[in-house]
Amino acid sequence: MDTSTFWRLIEDSRTDTADIEEHTVRLVDRLAALAPQEIVAFHSEYRLHKARAYTWRLWAAGYLINGGCSDDGFEYFRDWLIAQGQQVFERALADADSLTDLDLPQDQDAEAEDLGGAAQAAYRRLIGMDIPLEHVASPAAPAGEPWRDEDLDTLLPSLSARY
To answer: How far apart are the C-alpha atoms of 126 and 100, rounded to whole Å?
Structure first.
């Protein structure tokens, strides 16, 4: 699966809904309509993008936006970031502070845990079993420099001011 098809599936399933649960249901439905090998390819592409977002700066952004961000929280934050579509995702990778431009509901965390399992759910629906082990390795540690709470105002000034 090429990158443009991957992002088209993400964005088409997000059309006309801000609800992450509805987005996930739609994505699972779209994926379940594909051939099993296409679902596996989507899953691999998803894992590649999620690994690209494994950076200290994005962890700091998730920490600010969500009022804290554990290891699991950062997993779900990266799922949420992918759910926002290619433009937001790529822009955030280049400049995590750009997430200030999004109009995020104050009562909702920027997390999308279930979206990360959409390919598994679609594959299970179609085949009745889990996707075979992936060959996409997760990075051992986030890219970039670790931060401390007192660094956040300088590291991400717009997000720090907003959150």
So the answer is: 39
Coil vs helix vs strand at 134: coil
Which residue spans within the chain are E strands per DSSP?
none
Side chain identity at 13, as an amino acid letter?
S
What is the per-residue pLDDT across 31-74, written as a single tens digit (0 to 9) for each? 999 999 999 999 999 999 999 999 999 999 999 999 999 999 99
d(CA 111, CA 115): 9
Note whether 99 and 92 are within 8 A (CB). Answer: yes
How far is C-alpha 146 from the chain's CA centre? 20
Residue 20 has a CB neighbour count (10 Å cut-off) of 21
Q: How far apart are CA 48 and CA 137, in angstroms?
A: 8
Instruction: Indicate whether this model's pTM tops 0.90.
Output: yes
